[in-house]
């Protein structure tokens, strides 16, 4: 089981590679 | 909620995570915030490959509630692509896995709708209405299903 989420930064690239999955787009103010 | 191992596991299995930060990625935050009308944090959107928003979570939620909303989003996406068998299964998963969340009565409602869409049999709606006599009687979704009795 992975221990952390590997966040992408490029929404458009993520969408282009989605291939059946949904993109979770997180608008955040949390510390990285 | 993101450090929680169940949340990490769910997102890693089912979703492609992208984060835009209000300060660290200010330009993207503004551009995508305008595009999706998201101007508060935290806001989580589930977006399909066409760029269409399928589900929205605004504000912080405890782990089970957050996971139930993510699961609801997967079900909504299946419904939107008219994959009704998958949608019914995913909506019922929301009810069974997260029975004490706000997502559960919504899942129960839409599982019935999915079955109806698949079968065109109105008894699926009637059964859903009856199910609300057993669980989630006080929910908004019970009121919505009451017309199918």
What's the Cα radius of gyration of chain B?
A: 17 Å
Q: What's the main sheet of chain B like?
A: 2 strands, antiparallel
CATH superfamily of chain B: Tetratricopeptide repeat domain
Structural class of chain B: alpha+beta
Question: How many distinct beta strands of chain B?
Answer: 3
Beta strand count of chain A: 1
The total tally of domains of chain B equals 1
Q: Could you describe the largest sheet of chain A, including whether it forms a barrel? A: none
Cα-atom radius of gyration of chain A: 11 Å
Quaternary structure: heterodimer
**How would you state the average pLDDT of chain A, rounded?**
90
Write the layout of secondary structure elements.
The complex is a heterodimer of chains A (about 30) and B (about 150).
Chain A: H1 11-16, E1 22-28
Chain B: H1 5-14, E1 15-21, H2 26-36, E2 43-47, E3 53-58, H3 63-80, H4 84-97, H5 103-119, H6 123-134, H7 140-145
Antiparallel strand pairs in B: 2-3
Helix pairs in contact in B: 1-3, 3-4, 3-5, 4-5, 5-6
Observed structural traits:
heterodimer, A: 32 residues, alpha+beta, 1 helix, 22% strand, B: 149 residues, Serine Threonine Protein Phosphatase 5, Tetratricopeptide repeat, two-stranded antiparallel sheet, 3 strands, elongated
